[in-house]
Amino acid sequence: MKPERMKWRPHDNMVVTRPIRADEIPGLIEMMREDELSCFILSTGVEWYSGRYRVKARVVREAWGFTDHQFRRIMAYIYENNPWEAD
Fold it and tell me: Where are the domains of the chain?
C-alpha cells in the first residue's frame, strides 16, 4: 500500500516537474514540520523521522512527490541551513 502523497503544489497534474525555487524551500520545511517530519544531520549521515519513527529518505521523497533533482536541492538546503537544529 503506497502512502498518500503530500499536496505541496497548487496543481499536481503537470506533465513535467518544475524546479523548486530557493524561496519555496523554507515553506516546504514548515509543511514538513506540521506533518511531524524531521531531519537530523549526524556524523553518519542524515536521518529522517516521522514522529518518533525513523523513515528512509526514499519514502520521504516518494510521499512528498519530489523528483530526485528536487529532493537533492532540498537536501542541499538542509545541509546548508540545518533547519531542525533548534528542535
Answer: 22-81
